[in-house]
Structure formats: C-alpha cells, structure tokens
Amino acid sequence: MTIGDRTRLESHIVLDGQLTLGADCTVAPFASLGGPPQDLKYKGEPTGVAIGARNQVKEYVTISRGTVGGGGMTRIGDDNLLMAYTHIAHDCQIGSRIVFANAATLAGHVEVGDDATVGAACGVHQFVRIAKHAFIGGYSTITKDALPWVLTSGDRAVSHGINIVGLKRKGYPRRPSTRSSGVT
C-alpha cells in the first residue's frame, strides 16, 4: 500500500489490498478503497487499485480492486470528486476532473473520460464507455456508450443534445473560429 504526501485519511475508513493513493487526496469517513471485487470469477488473485492525486473521496464511497480477466487494476486519475455513496467497481478506468454525484454507481469494466459528470443515483452497466466531457443526468440508467459533450439521461438513457452549459463552463467560444481555409 502506498499513500501519497499530504493525503488526509479521516476516521473509520478501510484501505485494503494493493492500493496506491496519490498525494493531496482526502478520504472521508466510512469509505472503502481497494476491497475485493464483487465478481464471482475473482479467486483472490493479487490485483489492485491506483488512485491519482488531489481526489476527494466522500463518505461511504467504495472502490473495488481489479480482476485478472480485466487487466488486474482499477484506475482513477487526478482531481476527481466522488460524492457520497459512489461505487467504482472492478477494472474501471476513470480519467481526471470528473464529478460523480451522490450514489453514482459503475459496474465493472466501465471507462469514463476526462471532465465528464455522472449524475446522482445513476447506474452504469458493465463495459460502457462514457466519453470525455459527457454529462449524465441524475437517476439515469446507462446501458450504452455516452457521447462527448452530450446530455444523456433517462431510464434506458438517450442523448438529448449538446451540453451548452458544459461548453460555456469550460470556456469554449459560442461559435468556432471562422478563419478562411483557402477553399472558395
């Protein structure tokens, strides 16, 4: 187990297995990081969790270690906010600067790109990919890949158009550059 400099571990947390927790993270009470995967194929093989720097892991968050069949490692990037009751299952590959609202739940082998937002009480099916900058509305069931810069929500979620608010917050201009390409 490796814990980075200035990482704050509050009371009543569980750290287990081959876990790397980066610098400047905060782990709130009752979180459980690195526990065995909830996968019937798992037979105690040495697998792990790698969590980057400056992550905020709130109360009751669970992050499971990987499985041999999924590459053996659950990975989480930097600068993420995992709100209360978030679950990151085995072999998930999570980017950076992502917000997981309360009770966001990822099944195994899910990929989430940088700067995405996963709304409260969402269930994300195994092997789904959530693209960079995707926005998943609260209480959604995600069974298919979610597109970048698109609002996706609903029971058996569907795309609802471009996430204009997200584009503005990231500082993208209202209209793309209209420079001449030399073609007439």
Q: What does it look like?
A:
The chain is mainly beta and 184 residues long. The chain has one domain (2-169): 3 Solenoid (UDP N-Acetylglucosamine Acyltransferase, domain 1). The protein is 3% helix and 33% strand. It has one helix spanning 164-169, and strands at 2-3, 8-9, 14-15, 18-21, 26-27, 32-35, 48-51, 56-57, 62-64, 73-76, 81-82, 87-88, 93-94, 99-100, 105-106, 111-112, 117-118, 123-124, 129-130, 135-136, 141-142, 150-153, 158-162. The strands form 3 sheets. A 9-stranded mixed sheet has the order 2-5-8-11-14-17-20-22-23, with no helix packed on it. It has a 7-stranded parallel sheet with strand order 1-4-7-10-13-16-19, with no helix packed on it. The chain has a 7-stranded parallel sheet with strand order 3-6-9-12-15-18-21, with no helix packed on it. The radius of gyration is 18 Å and the shape is globular.
Output the structural class.
Answer: mainly beta
Q: Order of strands side by side in the largest beta sheet?
A: 2-5-8-11-14-17-20-22-23
What is Rg?
18 Å
Mean pLDDT: 93
| Sheet with most strands | 9 strands, mixed
What is the domain tally? 1
> Any low-confidence stretches, pLDDT <50, length ≥5?
180-184
Helix content: under 10%
- CATH topology name, in short, is UDP N-Acetylglucosamine Acyltransferase, domain 1
Strand content: 25-35%
CATH architecture: 3 Solenoid
Oligomer: single chain
What is the CATH top level name? Mainly Beta
Per-chain topology:
Blueprint: E1 2-3, E2 8-9, E3 14-15, E4 18-21, E5 26-27, E6 32-35, E7 48-51, E8 56-57, E9 62-64, E10 73-76, E11 81-82, E12 87-88, E13 93-94, E14 99-100, E15 105-106, E16 111-112, E17 117-118, E18 123-124, E19 129-130, E20 135-136, E21 141-142, E22 150-153, E23 158-162, H1 164-169
Parallel strand pairs: 1-4, 2-5, 3-6, 4-7, 5-8, 6-9, 7-10, 8-11, 9-12, 10-13, 11-14, 12-15, 13-16, 14-17, 15-18, 16-19, 17-20, 18-21, 20-22
Antiparallel strand pairs: 22-23
